[in-house]
Design brief:
The protein is of the alpha/beta class and 342 residues long. Helices cover 27% and strands 21% of the residues. Strands 4-1-5-7-8-9-12-13 form an eight-stranded mixed beta sheet, with helices on both faces. Strands 15-16-17-18 form a four-stranded parallel beta sheet, sandwiched between helices.
Length: 342
């Protein structure tokens, strides 16, 4: 059997920083000399190539980077068995979610990882995250097919589905979680895969990428005491195609007449309204309580148990590729690549 070939993509973030021995300042790592900082990589029977995008802080992330990533993956898809993307943790869940929708018919692993401490720091978590991500990207099953055939995030010994992940902590090593879906794998002495949780692509179609993305999406986070007149004025001169409503609990919201009338006026303008719960765990169940029954009657679409990150990026993808709002309403609440529980 030939050696597995992995393409390592660096986009920026803490994981790609090393400490200058003279000034102690942090500076970007030259990934062409990655094995100098992670000598363990030399023990891999894997061919590793690298590609560096212009490094950015992940807080400055824009969808332009997603487009560059999917175009590069499409271009190199047949040359590699898997791809590992090094990414800043603040927006890693957004990128993982977006790529899952933009890469249609994906049957190879796209593993994103990052770290809380730079590679050049003594106690860094970055080394293990990179090493295990590469191993997962190279792993094959008993049929010599990729073990992972989806976009995933590896962090602190666990592999999560990308479009089910969130960043929950700014200072813990286990900064990434998947509140509504089990880990795809856990790394201990061995890497133990959760075969029932893995997404398997049974299609024989070629990889297809979707790069048109619609950015005209607004998010409204509800809170007790919110002034609906202010909200109406804030949104009155904004041109947007979809509004994500961050609701309470199982999708509940105030029944204030001014608020409900405003939401109804938006639906009459053909603006898509998506109901996303503020809770990390659980699902939107419109109509379970009276405070969500009105939302359902107005025409809000339930995001069910999608994360906010998946909801935003799925809307970007759907509104960018589909002009029929009714079709988008149908697709947004239906599972495309494992982002919603059936």
């Amino acid at each position: 059997m030939s050696k597995s070939k992995i393409l390592l993509l660096y986009t920026g973030g803490t994981i790609g920083m090393v400490q200058d021995i003279n000034s102690n300042d942090l500076k970007p790592l030259d990934f062409n000399h990655l094995s100098l900082h992670i000598p363990e990589l030399k023990k891999f029977d894997i061919i590793i190539h690298t590609h560096t995008f212009e490094p950015i802080d992940s807080s400055n992330l824009s969808p332009d980077l997603w487009i560059k990533i999917v175009k590069l993956i499409k271009e190199r898809y047949e040359d590699y068995d898997g791809f590992v993307i090094l990414h800043g943790t603040d927006t890693i869940a957004y990128t993982a979610s977006a790529l899952s929708f933009m890469l249609e018919n994906l049957n190879k692993p796209i593993i994103l990882t990052g770290s809380q401490l730079p590679i050049g720091v003594l106690r860094t978590d970055g080394k293990e995250n990179i090493i295990t991500s590469i191993q997962i990207a190279a792993d094959k099953d008993h049929n010599n097919l990729p073990m992972v055939q989806e976009v995933a995030i590896y962090f602190e010994y666990k592999l999560y589905r990308g479009n089910r992940s969130i960043k929950y902590s700014a200072n813990h090593f286990d900064a990434i979680q998947s509140p509504n879906y089990p880990p795809l794998a856990e790394a201990g002495i061995d890497i133990e895969y959760n075969y029932n949780a893995l997404w398997k692509n049974i299609t024989e179609k070629n990889l297809n990428i979707h790069t048109p993305l619609c950015h005209q999406i607004a998010v409204l986070h509800l809170f007790p005491g919110i002034d609906f007149e202010i909200i109406k004025k804030q949104f009155s001169n904004i041109d947007f195609k979809a509004l994500i409503l961050r609701t309470y609990g199982a999708g509940n919201a105030p029944t204030h007449k001014t608020f409900l009338d405003w939401l109804k006026s938006l639906t009459e303008k053909n603006i898509l309204l998506l109901n996303v719960t503020q809770c990390l765990q659980g699902s939107v169940e419109q109509g379970k309580y009276e405070t969500s029954k009105y939302l359902k009657e107005i025409g809000l679409v339930s995001a069910k148990d999608m994360t906010l990150e998946a909801s935003i990026t799925k809307l970007m993808y759907l509104l960018g590729t589909e002009k029929n709002t009714e079709k988008v309403k149908h697709l947004i609440s239906h599972n495309i690549c494992g982002e919603i529980s059936s």
